[in-house]
Design a protein that fits this description.
Blueprint lengths: L1 H24 L1 H19 L10 E2 L5 H4 L1 E2 L3 H7 L4 H19 L1 H11 L4 H12 L6 H11 L5 H8 L11 H29 L3 H9 L4 H25 L8 H6 L5 H4 L2 H11 L3 H29 L6
Helix pairs in contact: 4-16, 5-10, 6-10, 7-10, 10-12, 11-12, 12-16, 15-16
């Protein structure tokens, strides 16, 4: 027993020495990694200290340390707001529909593009579909409003086929479909890049073996292609579920108006009006923390289910 203990005591310093030696030999890589680590610490982790104002009645004059502590009052104020359930439901429905319709779209597009054998045509399609991602949100929203206006492209096409003119942005029921369809159009090409990269990594010998066994293109897709990129799909699905309650206010703010608040007002725009325009900073911090807790919970659940069912997970 004493001999075993002595061996462990000798082995521990040796392992520590080897570890530090490995770090020293790879010091240039760690130096390259340092700016990224510092960036995360400064811009992602350090601001988390400011979450304390979610539990305060924050005052710019008194500062974080001088502001009154109010506990959960800001959370109660948000949860009991008259239009809380409306903005919560709108946020959830838009994000759910974006997940259901928007998440499979780049996968399907990448699979279709993978079947194209004409290299020039393939590159042209990729370039065209990538372009909307690089257009600013302001320009995108201006284009959307122009397309759906009374004399816009959509109403012009409806008129050609005998349809009646519709003022889309005056009817609440049209806002969410317009938002989701435009989001798919804007992100389709860019989101497909990672799937195209994953498809290039599928072993070509598997396709040859499938052909020998008599599998056609459709069976190759289901039995070789999809299983080959399934880990990538599951990881991105988990990450998307982890952002289910997060939604930027910029696009909604540029598109909506008072006539369609019932379907267009979401948590982020609600916080913009209450937290920024009315200077209720503690309130906006409380809502942000509320969203983060829900997203973190959804991420944990999605990761657990994926790990148990598909053996693919973030950790």
């Amino acid at each position: 027993m004493a001999e075993i203990t002595a061996r462990k005591a000798v082995k521990a310093p040796l392992q520590s020495h080897v570890r530090w030696r490995d770090i020293y030999e790879a010091r240039h890589l760690y130096i390259l990694l340092l700016p990224t680590v510092l960036g995360y610490l400064i811009f992602n982790y350090a601001p988390m200290c400011g979450l304390v104002i979610a539990f305060q009645k924050f005052s710019l004059i008194k500062g974080v340390f001088g502001s009154q502590f109010v506990g959960l009052d800001n959370f109660v104020k948000f949860l009991t707001a008259p239009n809380f359930w409306q903005v919560f439901q709108n946020t959830l429905s838009i994000n759910l529909m974006s997940l259901v319709f928007g998440f499979p779209a780049p996968i399907i597009f990448a699979l279709l593009l993978n079947e194209v054998r004409n290299t020039s045509f393939k590159k042209a399609v990729q370039t065209i579909t990538y372009m909307p991602h690089f257009i600013s949100t302001v320009v995108i929203c201006s284009m959307i409003l122009t397309f759906v206006s009374s004399d816009g492209l959509i109403n012009t096409l409806r008129g050609i086929f005998g349809g009646k003119e519709i003022s889309f942005m005056s009817h609440p029921q049209y806002f969410q479909p317009i938002y989701i369809i435009s989001g798919i159009w804007q992100g389709l090409g860019w989101s497909s890049i990672i799937y195209i990269a994953a498809l290039s990594g599928v072993d070509q010998q598997l396709y040859e073996a499938a052909k020998i066994d008599g599998a056609g293109r459709w069976k190759q897709l289901w039995n070789v292609t999809l299983p080959g990129i399934m880990p990538t799909i599951m990881i991105l699905l988990i990450m998307n579920i982890g952002h289910l309650m997060s939604m930027g206010y910029e696009k909604v703010l540029l598109l909506y108006n008072s006539a369609i608040y019932s379907k267009a007002d979401v948590i982020s725009t609600f916080v913009y009006r209450r937290g920024l325009l009315n200077a209720e900073y503690s309130f906006s911090a409380a809502v942000g923390l509320f969203n983060s807790v829900i997203n973190f919970t959804l991420l944990m659940i999605a990761n657990f289910i994926s790990k148990k069912t598909t053996e693919n997970a973030l950790w």
